[in-house]
Design a protein that fits this description.
It comes from Gordonia soli NBRC 108243. This protein is an all-alpha fold and 85 residues long. It has 5 helices and no strands. Helix 1 packs across helix 3 and helix 3 runs antiparallel to helix 4. The N and C termini lie far apart (43 Å).
């Protein structure tokens, strides 16, 4: 049986990357594209899916909430548009 997080490409790498960048509000659009080959929006959609799909034991609650806040902030249309201009 396939785990839910297996549906997200590079899920483990994404989590490590995202956790490293938590203190800074997430990685830059350039860093995300260089590392994963996807746009900022795609990255944060996938990351949000991961944070909601992982078993409670896979990531601590503080980290999960921090990542969810960053995803929400970065997926805000205005925030993404401002970073890409």
């Amino acid at each position: 049986m396939t785990k839910l997080v297996d549906w997200v490409p590079d899920s483990q790498r994404m989590l490590v990357f995202a956790q490293r960048w938590v203190p800074f509000g997430g990685g830059s659009a350039d860093d995300i594209f260089t590392e994963f080959g996807v746009t900022e929006r795609v990255f944060f959609l996938r990351l949000r899916h991961l944070t909601r799909s992982l078993a409670p034991s896979a990531i601590d609650d503080v980290t999960r909430r921090s990542l969810e806040r960053i995803c929400s902030a970065r997926l805000d249309t205005g925030a993404v548009r401002a970073r890409t201009m």
